[in-house]
């Protein structure tokens, strides 16, 4: 599992909240949330729990053909 899949699993809204707390608490600009993350959360793309985050989880899984 890569870092973006993990972020989707955790929830992009949770990741954003964590980054905001770290940025405000530590004052380090490396913890400032990236604008794309903010856009995704504002658009409701929260990860697996909403069916769409960085990846689209709404797709149906591939099923084998009944002829096989």
TrEMBL record:
Entries under InterPro entries matching the protein: 3HC_DH_C, 6-PGluconate_DH-like_C_sf, 6PGD_dom2
GO biological process: fatty acid metabolic process
A molecular function (GO) term: oxidoreductase activity, acting on the CH-OH group of donors, NAD or NADP as acceptor
Domain of life: Eukaryota
Pfam families: 3HCDH
Domain named 3-hydroxyacyl-CoA dehydrogenase C-terminal: residues: 1-57
Matching PANTHER family: 3-HYDROXYACYL-COA DEHYDROGENASE FAMILY PROTEIN, 3-HYDROXYBUTYRYL-COA DEHYDROGENASE
Protein name as annotated: 3-hydroxyacyl-CoA dehydrogenase C-terminal domain-containing protein
Organism whose genome encodes this protein: Brassica carinata (Ethiopian mustard)
